[in-house]
Specification:
The protein is α+β, with helices and mostly antiparallel strands. It folds into 2 domains: 56-154; 158-265. Helix content is 31%, strand content 45%. Strands 1, 2, 3, 4, 5, 6, 7, 11, 12, 13, 14 and 15 form a 12-stranded mixed β-sheet that branches. Strands 8-9-10 form a 3-stranded antiparallel β-sheet, with no helix packed on it. The radius of gyration is 36 Å and the shape is elongated. Mean pLDDT is 71; it is low at 19-55 and 249-265.
Length: 265
């Protein structure tokens, strides 16, 4: 009887040791899994950092300037966008360069410059190398993206209008519509049309002409152009414009005809 009891206690003792060992092994296995999961998470974080670096985004900063660059290779070619912000003597100058290299090897470059005065009231938008500069009192924002730079103007009601048509293009549209070579004023402004605010290019020109074909004068003409689509929204001329023989159109025709004659000679 005593032997049977002793054997039972011995078996229970051995079973307890085995159970405790199994629990210890399970704990070690769980801790090992946690460690491996932590290592995996760290590896994932490091891989995500490598992915963000692979996007080839750069940012530099010195005393007065901040430079940002984004380079991207697409199925149709390569795109490089660079933005430089310079603050000096209270004035802010933003220069945006965009270079597009197509798969056929052709390269197109454009540079947009936005300038703000000390009070931040007057802004100027121009394309570098072009002769057209636009003034505006609207708040202009630029959004640097991987494949393009978006300009937009903020209206008084808080809404935004994209500026897809740059000043050079808007001025060419106005020249064709007004048949005027000399533009005197280009402004990006907000106007109310049918109680709805909208942003327009307002472009003016003083056209030379002869009233009744005799008296020399200058006649002010104006065009409004949609900065999103390039559509001509409105043109204005004096009511007596039909009495004026416009010289700009004549000069253009005379120049082209004289060039034709010289070529023929």
């Amino acid at each position: 009887m005593q032997k049977s009891v002793l054997i039972i206690f011995s078996l229970l003792f051995l079973f307890g040791i085995m159970l405790n060992s199994a629990l210890v092994l399970a704990d070690n296995d769980d801790s090992g899994r946690e460690d491996s999961e932590k290592e995996k998470n760290n590896e994932d974080k490091s891989e995500s950092s490598e992915i963000s670096l692979a996007k080839n985004q750069e940012r530099e900063r010195d005393e007065n300037k901040i430079r940002e660059r984004i380079r991207e290779e697409t199925s149709t070619g390569k795109i490089e966008v660079e933005r430089e912000i310079e603050v000096k003597d209270g004035k802010t100058k933003i220069k945006i360069k965009r270079k597009i290299e197509n798969e056929n090897g052709s390269v197109r470059e454009e540079t947009i410059v936005i300038e703000r005065d000390e009070e931040g009231i007057k802004k100027r938008i121009k394309t570098e190398g072009g002769n057209v500069e636009v003034e505006t009192e609207l708040e202009i924002e630029d959004d640097l993206k991987s494949n393009q730079t978006n300009l937009r103007a903020r209206l008084r009601d808080g809404n935004y209008t994209d500026i897809k048509i740059l000043p050079d293009t808007a001025s060419e549209i106005a020249r064709l519509r007004l048949q005027a070579m000399n533009l005197t004023r280009i402004e990006l402004r907000e106007k109310i049309h049918n109680n709805i605010p909208q942003v327009v290019y307002q472009i003016e020109s003083n056209k030379n002409g002869r009233f009744l074909g005799v008296f020399k004068l200058q006649m002010r003409v104006q065009a409004e152009i949609n900065p999103e689509t390039g559509d001509v929204l409105n043109t204005e001329r004096p009511w007596w414009a039909f009495l004026v023989l416009e010289s700009d159109a004549e000069n253009t025709e005379d120049t082209s005809s004289s060039q034709t004659e010289n070529t023929a000679q």
